[in-house]
Amino acid sequence: MTRDDLKIFQSLEVDHSAIGLEPAGAESACFCTPVGAEVFAGLGCDGVHFVLLPGDERVFCVEPSLGEPRTYVLPVGEDFRAFLSYVLWCRDANPLSQLAFFPEETFRALLSEEAGQSWEGMEDLRRRKEAALGKVAVAFALEPTDPWERVHALQEAFDPACLRFSEEYYDVLGLEGPG
Predict the structure, then answer these.
(1) Origin, by domain of life (predicted)?
(2) Domain ranges in the chain?
(3) Which residue of 47, 68, 98, 116 pairs with 64 in a disulfide if CB–CB is 3.0 to 4.6 A?
(4) Quick one: residue 95, left, alpha or beta (phi over 0 = left, psi -120 to 50 = alpha)?
(5) What is the C-alpha to C-alpha distance for residues 15 and 129, in angstroms, rounded to an integer?
(6) Spatial distance between the Cα atoms of 14 and 47, rounded to a whole number of angstroms
(7) b/e per residue, 143-175, with b = 16+ CB within 10 A?
(8) DSSP letter assigned to residue 44
(9) For the segment 155-166, what is each residue's pLDDT rounded down to a tens digit?
(10) How do residues 29-53 score in pLDDT, each as one tens digit?
(11) Measured between alpha carbons, how far is 51 from 58 in angstroms, rounded to an integer?
């Protein structure tokens, strides 16, 4: 289901980058991208990207700049539709990439601050963002869903020991790789 939904999402004629889901592929992988991960989108900054893992319906965020060994890769959606409903709530994928690293008050303040921003070109971005979010909501018959509790529960239950990393991961971190 998740991979079918991803194909539908990728085929939508929207500005994916306006909602923090700039199309990406293997070229966006970095030292902490799990082996076998399917990179499908990125924020377009700091190397943050979103992946699907083999045999798993969950959506994961790879966060090389804020993360550390147990938090470089964390789930941000039970499946692709849940992930999109969280993007609809946050109005962008960026807040989802940061959810694990901030207390709830900071996370919610970030959302409010972003909504109140104003700078040259912001109105154009808002129009593109609203158009993209609207098409996503209609295409998947989704309502925005507050991600805070659900994503935190996913992340707390997640055991990163299931992830496999390349030799580069262990080299960058100065760790000894598994056997």
Answers:
(1) Bacteria
(2) 2-148
(3) 47
(4) alpha
(5) 7
(6) 22
(7) eebebbebbeebbeebeeeebebbeebeeeeee
(8) S
(9) 999 999 999 999
(10) 999 999 999 999 999 999 999 999 9
(11) 9
